[in-house]
Design goal:
Blueprint: H1 2-20, H2 25-33, E1 41-42, H3 43-49, H4 51-54, H5 57-60, E2 67-68, H6 70-99, E3 106-108, H7 109-115, H8 117-121, H9 123-126, E4 133-135, H10 136-153
Antiparallel strand pairs: 1-2, 3-4
Helix pairs in contact: 1-6, 1-10, 6-7
Length: 154
Amino acid sequence: MLRKMFIVSLILAPALAVAAAPGGRRVDSFKKADADGNGMLSRAEVEKSLPKLARQFDVIDANRDGNLTPEEIRAWSRARRGHRRETAGAKFQEYFKRADADGDGALSRAEAGQGMPRIARKFDAIDANRDGKVTQDEMRAWFQARRAARERRS
C-alpha cells in the first residue's frame, strides 16, 4: 500500500507543481473564488468555491486577518511541497534500498521486478547508460525529464 502511494506521489508531484505555478490553474481558481474582486479570499469565499482549501484556512491565514492572499497561499503551498519532497525522498530511499537485494546501489531488472514493479515496466527508459542496472540518479533524471516534458505541454 505504501509503495503504491509513493509511486502515485512521484507521478502526481509534477502535476501539482504545475497547478501551483504562477499563471497556473490555481491563479484562475483564486480569481474565480474572489467574488468581490478585492484580491483576497474571505473564509466564506473559500468555503463556497474551494472546499478542500477551506479545511486549511486557519493554517494558511498567516497574519490571522480572516482573509487569504495569493502570497499566503503560495507560501503555504511551498511549505507543503517542501515537506512532501522530504517525505517522498525518504520513502524513495527506503523503497530503493529494500528493492536493492544485493546492496550494490543499483537495481537489476530482476530486483526492480521484485521490489518496484512499476519501475520495472519502465526499466529500459530509465536505464540511461544501458548497463542493465538502474541507479537512483537515473531514476531522478528520468522523473525530472518527464516533469519538464509535462510542464512544456501545459
